[in-house]
Specification:
single chain; 307 residues; alpha+beta; Rossmann fold; D-amino Acid Aminotransferase, Chain A, domain 1; Dna Ligase, domain 1; 3 domains; 6-stranded antiparallel sheet; 11 helices
């Protein structure tokens, strides 16, 4: 798994940064750093790419990327680390570019036979095209952790939500709302972990419901029948491969009232906080948090990133 004993490894954990997900990234990064330290690995904590660039890159064996948001997930970090020959967790440049833009990811995944809700991308209100009476989900094309996520029940609400979203970002995705249950499938080392079904306790699983709400419930086992559970895990792996992802990721779906599942997005640097979903799925198969972190770290050394 590793080329040297754990006690001889030095790992830079990069977290924080400047994105809207900074606080969650810091929490994830500290949890990862503590787990690595507990296993005798020397840890260097770095706040964003700026601190990484100030380091002697030869002073560590690998980078554990837990930098949520743009710099950590759009290919900027992956491209740099690949160019200087530093091992790192997560996908390479190609996977980052293909998955970071939700519209691009949806197009690729749909081409591989996986359903995804109809959607349109706009940069101003005048571009909105109304093809149905709604409802819709409005979200940034390039952001994570449900930042800037809105639910619109009718055309008036849609335009209002779109205006709000466009004050936060330059480009938004308007997606047909799928009524049903949201779920997610974590993938680590080429293995689909158990499906987690999410009940936010409110109408929308947004940033508040994801990180701060005490009402949100998570079910693992999911409660879905075996056929649906298997289909979700298979399509998560299919999407993972179609998007050229590596190491680990989390694939989000909606399951409608008829039992059909719909791809929403891929998360290439998922959260690793106490309320995060990948640790919950790992726990369901008997992995401790420390073991999960070590398994993710191992992929930095075993999976090729340059495709």
């Amino acid at each position: 798994m590793f080329s040297k004993p754990l006690s001889k490894l030095t790992v830079a954990v990069i977290m924080g940064g400047k994105s809207a997900e900074r606080e969650v990234s810091l929490r994830s990064g500290l949890a990862v750093a503590n787990a690595l330290s507990a296993q005798s690995i020397k840890v260097i904590k770095l706040d964003g790419i700026e601190e990484l660039l100030k380091c002697d890159l030869k002073s560590f064996d690998a980078v554990f990327n837990i930098l949520h948001g743009e710099a950590g997930e759009n290919g900027e970090l992956a491209g740099f680390l690949s160019s200087v020959g530093i091992a790192y967790t997560g996908c390479g440049l190609k996977g980052a570019v293909l998955s970071w833009d939700k519209s691009v990811a949806k197009t690729i995944v749909q081409a591989h036979g996986i359903r995804t809700p109809n959607s349109q991308v706009i940069t101003n209100i005048a571009q909105i095209q109304i093809h149905n009476p709604g409802p819709w989900i409005v979200k940034p094309t390039q952001e994570g952790s449900s930042v800037g996520l809105f639910y619109a029940d009718n055309e008036i609400e849609l335009k209002t939500c779109a205006r709000k979203a466009l004050k936060l970002v330059d480009s938004i995705l308007i997606e047909d709302y799928i009524k049903g249950s949201e779920c997610t499938v974590a993938i680590v080392k080429g293995k689909s972990l158990p499906v987690i079904r999410i009940n936010p306790g409110v109408d929308l699983y947004d940033y508040e419901a994801k990180y701060n709400s005490t009402q949100t419930e998570y079910f693992c086992p999911s409660g879905y029948d075996n056929k649906l559970e298997d289909a979700l895990k298979q399509d998560a792996l299919k999407a993972f491969k179609a998007l050229h992802l590596k190491g680990w990721a989390r694939i989000d779906f909606m399951v409608d009232k008829q039992g059909k599942h719909w791809f929403l997005e891929a998360n290439t640097t998922p959260g690793m906080t106490q309320t995060s979903l990948v640790p919950k799925a790992a726990n369901a198969i008997g992995w401790s948090f420390n073991q999960l972190v070590l398994n993710i770290l191992s992929t930095a050394f075993t999976e090729v990133k340059n495709d």
